[in-house]
Design brief:
mainly alpha, Non-ribosomal Peptide Synthetase Peptidyl Carrier Protein, Chain A, 0% strand, Acyl carrier protein, ACP-like_sf
Length: 82
């Protein structure tokens, strides 16, 4: 599996035509990427489909930056390390 950062950047480009020069954990979805509410919902849906996970409405409401989104992906998708 490609890293969540790479995959999310790819989803931004392919699904929403958003081409950030660089992204990091602190990249704010609204302030830095200019995403609207529907674009954020669309991205979260694409992330759910890509990784076969479910992001609850409560979690979705609290996602403001890519670090928070990637934390949910890692938590739900990646197996815990022993």
């Amino acid at each position: 599996m490609k890293s969540p950062v790479y995959s999310i950047q790819h989803l931004l480009k392919r699904k929403l035509n958003i081409y950030p020069v660089s992204i990091s954990d602190k990249t704010d979805l609204q302030k830095d990427l200019g995403m609207t509410d529907w674009e954020k919902a669309y991205l979260l849906n694409a992330v759910e489909q890509n990784w076969h996970i479910h992001i609850s409405d409560n979690d979705a409401a609290n996602i403001a930056n890519l670090g928070q989104l990637m934390a949910i992906v890692r938590q739900q998708y990646l197996p815990p390390k022993n």
